[in-house]
Structure formats: C-alpha cells, structure tokens
Automatic annotation (TrEMBL):
The lineage of its organism: Bacteria, Bacillati, Actinomycetota, Actinomycetes, Kitasatosporales. Pfam families: ROK. It comes from the Bacteria. It comes from Streptomyces tardus. Gene3D superfamilies: 3.30.420.40, Winged helix-like DNA-binding domain superfamily/Winged helix DNA-binding domain (1.10.10.10). This is ROK family protein. Belongs to the ROK (NagC/XylR) family.
Length: 408
C-alpha cells in the first residue's frame, strides 16, 4: 500500500524558513511568503496552515482590500497572539530583569527591574529565573525555551563568564550551567535544549538586526554602553560573529586615549572607561548618586542639561570625539554597512549627530566612515529580546520540535 504524504517534503523543509520570514516581518502576506520561499502557492498555503496548526502564526482567511487594489487579495500572516513564549533574563551591573518574549520579538510580560546583584551568580540568576517562572505561571503561556544575557564575554563551548568586570562575580563563572540548573530547579521545561546564554550587547545587536534598527543590514556593527562599560557586536548574514571561542568584538577594550583612565583590563584609555555612563558623569563634574542606575543618571543629565550647561556640553563633546575615533577604527577593520548605537551612545548621537558623523568620517580611511549610516537602537529591552532569540532559534530551525508536548 502506498503511503500518503500529508506534508510534502519540500513543504516540510520550508517550515523553518517560512516561520523566520513571518517572525522577522518579511512575509506579511501569503503572496510574499510564496515569492520569498520560491514555492508554489499551494505549498506556501500548506506551510502557513501547518504553522497555524502548531499555534505559531495566524492566517487571515478573509482579508480585505482597498477599492483601488487589483488582483486577488492575499491572506495576511501574523504572529499568534496567544502563542508560545520563551523566558528571557538579563543581569547587568545595576540589577536584573526577567521577561516572556513571543515570536516577532514581542515582549509579552516583564518584571520590574531589580537593583540588587548578589556576588554569587547562582543567587541572582536563580532570582531572575524564579521571577520569570512567576510570569509563566501568571500568564499560562507555553514555554519553548529560555535565554540569559550577561554583561560579560561568554566563552565557548563551556558557557563561562570570562570577564564580568562590573559585577562581583568570580572570573570564569559557569553561567550557562548555573542558568540551566536554576531552570530545572524552578520547573521550567521546554521541548528544545534550553539555557542559552550570551553577552548582552551581542544579544541586543541580534535583536536589533531581526526586529529593530538593524533590519536589512548584511554587515551590522553595534556599539553600546551598558549600565557600566562599553560593548560591541557584529551581525553578518543574520548571524552573530562570535569568533573561534565566543570572544570576538570586545570593542570596549579598543584604546582611544593612550594616556587615559586605567581600564579594568589593565590597559589605559579604553572605550570601556572613556565613553561609558560613569565617564560622562565624572567629565561633567557630577557625583553619581544611589537613587538610580548610572545609565539613567547620565542619560537624564544629557537630555536635560546639554543645551544649558557648558560642563555637560563639554563632557558630551569629549565622549563624542573619543567614540567617533573608536568607530572610525572599527569601520577601517570591519567595513560595516550600518552602525547602530545603544545606551548612552544613542543619546550622544541624538544631541550632536553632525559632530559624531564628522569625527567618524575624518578619522576613517578615505573618509569612508562618513558614508556608513549611523542609527540609534530602537528596541526596548533589546538584550532581553536577543536572549529570547537564542531560545527561539531551535524552533525557527525546525518548528516541528513543538509537536513534542512538554509542559512548563
């Protein structure tokens, strides 16, 4: 007896690419999906129906068109509003936060930021996971994975925090293993491997590439301050460039002021200590207070006093010039087609975009840096969304893994 194939192999192999197209907003209709996949309309319809059956997307079977439109209207595709989520957590110098993130980079729920980071990574990661598990219990959504963002390079393949410079954690803390243990202890289970962990700026860049200011870029450079320090990332062809062991693009340790401040890495004048929130506050003659994070204090000062306070304006110009020097060097080495800036650097771009662009152009070879678009990061909680992207990736690779019914 001949076996009837209810899901043609070609259609099955198209499930992952189709889901990624909807996930990143590149296939808003079935007609676009058909064209992007290079399949027949019937195959695209079957693929969309299967993804809908898995609870991942919606297919609008009765779309409307304007009076001036021509031809048959195409079915609209969207993210299932009550679909599965991943648990995302982020630890930074001033606290931690947990969230539930759905397809499309949609933050479904988030906890308030906590301002206490224990010196024991297991303690703070456990608290973040417990907060995320509470969100899951409150929403009743299905969990398909978990991801963690940390302010440190994460060495591969062991998943260790190699340089948690602005935390009191020990060097080489096994954060991925700790995260997985905490998920198991909290009863968070998923149909795929879970406990993905990465550097916060890397993950923010990945999120911006898929859902924010980096969409459409093929060679995206991201440079951003965290609550302390400076990080960088490069996304090429949709994937993070992490190097041979996960440690690529430590741009915070690019020297821009050889006689400058002593950096935690042992050098002097690194971007990490010359252009971060603490450096700005000190250059402006302000003493940081305990009332909020350094990032919040620095951005509020820049927004509120740049026009009226000469010391704030001079401090901003100093950081812009040093940041521009660093970006020019990165343009010379990496040849990106777009640069996005986050944290305090986004605010520096906002207050004097012309100055920053001119420094990058002047200090780059053949003034090439002047032609590279400089944009601000646009996503709220982009490191959390990026941590979620790590956890979503196995589903994007093969949506049929969700047929395994594993409750959270």
């Amino acid at each position: 007896m001949t076996q009837i194939r209810t899901r043609p192999e070609r259609g099955r192999s198209a499930l992952g690419p189709a889901l990624e197209l909807v996930h990143t907003g590149r296939a808003p209709t079935r007609a676009v999906l058909t064209a992007e996949l290079g399949v027949t309309r019937a195959t695209a319809g079957a693929v969309a129906a299967e993804l809908q059956h898995l609870g991942l997307i919606t297919v609008d079977a009765s779309p409307t068109t304007g009076a001036a439109s021509q031809g048959r209207p195409s079915h609209r595709l969207g993210i299932a509003p009550d679909g599965p989520v991943v648990l995302a957590a982020q630890v930074h110098a001033d606290g931690y936060r947990a969230a539930l993130v759905g397809l499309g980079g949609q933050v479904v729920a988030t906890t308030p930021g906590c301002g206490t980071v224990d010196a024991d990574p297991a303690q703070v990661i456990g608290e973040a996971v417990a907060a995320g598990a509470g969100l899951l219990a409150g929403t009743g959504r299905r969990c398909v994975g978990a991801g963690l963002a940390v302010p440190s390079a994460v060495a591969e393949p062991d998943g260790t925090a190699l340089n948690p410079l602005h935390l009191a954690w020990p060097v080489g803390a096994p954060v991925r293993g700790i995260f997985r243990d905490c998920l198991a202890e909290a009863g968070v289970r998923a149909p795929t491997e879970t406990g993905f962990t990465g550097n916060d700026v890397n993950l923010g860049a990945l999120a911006e590439h898929r859902h924010g200011a980096g969409r459409g870029s093929r060679h995206l450079l991201c440079v951003a301050t965290g609550h302390r320090g400076v990080g960088g990332a490069l996304v090429q062809g949709g994937r993070l460039h992490s190097g041979s062991s996960g440690l690529a693009l430590e741009v915070g340790h690019l020297v821009v002021e050889p006689q400058g401040r002593r950096c935690h890495c042992g050098s002097r004048g690194c971007l990490d200590v010359e252009t971060d929130p603490l450096a700005f506050l000190e250059a402006a003659g302000r003493t940081p207070g305990p009332e909020s994070s350094l990032l919040h204090q620095s951005t509020e000062l820049l927004r509120g006093a740049y026009e009226s306070d000469e010391s704030v304006r001079a401090a901003a110009h100093r950081l812009i010039d040093l940041l521009g020097l660093g970006l020019a060097g990165l343009v010379n080495i990496l040849d990106p087609d777009r640069i996005i800036l986050g944290g305090l650097h986004r605010e520096l771009l906002r207050v004097d975009e012309e100055r920053l662009r001119e420094v990058v152009a002047e200090r780059s070879l053949w003034r090439r840096g002047g032609a590279v678009p400089l944009l601000s990061c646009t996503l709220d909680h982009n490191s959390l969304v990026g941590a979620a992207e790590l956890a979503w990736q196995p589903v994007l690779d093969d949506p049929l893994v969700l047929q395994e019914d594993v409750p959270c």
